Amino acid sequence: QVQLVESGGGVVHTGDSLSLSCAASGVFLDEYAIGWFRQAPGKEREAVACTSSDGGSTYSVGSAKGRFTLSRDNYKKTVVLQMNDLKPEDTAVYYCNYGYQYWGQGTQVTVSS
């Protein structure tokens, strides 16, 4: 059974950094792509950063470019999203996704101005 558990969310101030972690079980991380998505109140869920199954391609999208970095440890089955220079518009529930099919329960990130 595939299970993704996010952690590391919280309340921070503008310009702060935060690291989110996704612990996976029931999968081999190098089989499919894995990434982070977020959903702000009243908005659709959007991709933040993703990595290919072999880790050869890792990228951030949109406003996360240059500020958010995704890293993975296939042995530990963890995926970390390092977020720097956080802004109020980064406030959202952040979700870990595996293979564009499985989702974690999400972790709340709130950035106050």
Note down, in words, how this protein is organized.
By secondary structure, the chain is mostly beta strands. 0% of the residues lie in helices and 52% in strands. It contains no helices and eleven strands. The chain has strands spanning 3-7, 10-13, 18-25, 34-39, 46-51, 58-60, 68-73, 78-83, 92-98, 102-103, 107-112. The strands form two sheets. Strands 2, 4, 5, 6, 9, 10 and 11 form a seven-stranded mixed sheet that branches. Strand 4 (34-39) and strand 5 form a beta hairpin. The chain is globular. The termini are far apart. 29% of the residues are buried. The mean pLDDT is 92.
Determine Rg (CA atoms, Å).
13 Å
Fraction in helix: under 10%
Largest sheet: 7 strands, mixed
* Basic shape: globular
Low-confidence stretches: none
SS-based structural class?
Answer: mainly beta
Average pLDDT confidence is: 92
How many strands?
A: 11
Summarize the structure in short.
This protein is mainly beta. The protein is 0% helix and 52% strand. The protein has strands spanning 3-7, 10-13, 18-25, 34-39, 46-51, 58-60, 68-73, 78-83, 92-98, 102-103, 107-112.
Task: Provide tags for this entry.
113 residues; mainly beta; seven-stranded mixed beta sheet; four-stranded antiparallel beta sheet; 11 strands; 52% strand
Per-chain topology:
Elements: E1 3-7, E2 10-13, E3 18-25, E4 34-39, E5 46-51, E6 58-60, E7 68-73, E8 78-83, E9 92-98, E10 102-103, E11 107-112
